[in-house]
Write a structure and sequence with these properties.
mainly alpha; 0% strand
């Protein structure tokens, strides 16, 4: 189950409509952070890279 969710999240954060704004930051703070310890570390980094780009 965690793998399927991780794959969906990886595809979701790459969507161009989230390239601007703070949607991914809110997604991370309110959703992903609750179970990040269960996600493969490499996959988590791939997801967080997109989140960090919105912080700068």
């Amino acid at each position: 189950l965690w793998h399927q969710l991780t794959v969906r999240l990886q595809n979701f954060v790459q969507n161009p409509c989230f390239a601007t704004g703070d949607g991914l930051i809110k997604l991370y703070e309110n959703f992903i952070s609750e179970f990040e310890h269960r996600i493969n570390p490499l996959s988590l980094v791939e997801i967080v890279l997109h989140v960090v780009r919105q912080m700068s």
